[in-house]
Design goal:
The chain is α+β, with helices and mostly antiparallel strands. It has a single domain, classed as Roll (Thiol Ester Dehydrase, Chain A), CATH 3.10.129.10. The chain is 23% helix and 38% strand. The N and C termini lie close together (10 Å). The model has no long low-confidence stretch (mean pLDDT 95).
């Protein structure tokens, strides 16, 4: 079930993100996903520091990245990050990267994060604080 929690962040492709072929190096799209997660954290209070303060780490265990078009130095880009609700003890985000001004999809992807306690032990149950976060932000259907 997809949630309605979504945010957008505008960035401009920097010179350091472009390779010798004059296009954004493929690994930088993963950094753009990170930019999207950080913006989501600012808007909805689900950041790494909040997670850590509640006694958990949330490493990425799965990453998908589908490239559609290329980006070049100076391009204006929108990173759209959507939280996907799940019954399991994990955090799922989907991403769409759009090139402005025509909003052409350049890349799409997905990440899955799991919960570890501060002893690096996998948590199979959803942490209580995360349940509280979900109740605060997700609409009941």
């Amino acid at each position: 079930m997809k949630s309605e929690l979504k945010c957008r962040k505008q960035i401009t492709v920097r010179f350091s993100e472009v390779d010798s072929l004059r296009m954004v190096w493929h690994g930088n799209y993963v950094k753009y996903f990170e930019d999207g997660r950080e913006e989501f954290a600012r808007q909805f209070g689900l950041g790494y520091l909040e997670t850590y303060a509640n006694g958990y780490l949330t490493p990425i265990v799965k990453l998908e990245c589908d490239y559609k078009k290329t980006l070049s130095f100076g391009d204006s880009v929108i990173i759209e990050t959507t939280y996907v609700d799940d019954r399991a003890a994990k955090i799922i985000f989907e991403y769409q990267i759009f090139k402005e001004p025509d909003h052409a999809i350049v890349c799409s992807g997905k990440t899955i994060q799991v919960f570890l306690n501060l002893d690096n032990e996998l948590q199979l149950n959803i942490p209580e604080w995360f349940e509280g976060w979900k109740k605060k932000w997700l609409k009941k259907k």
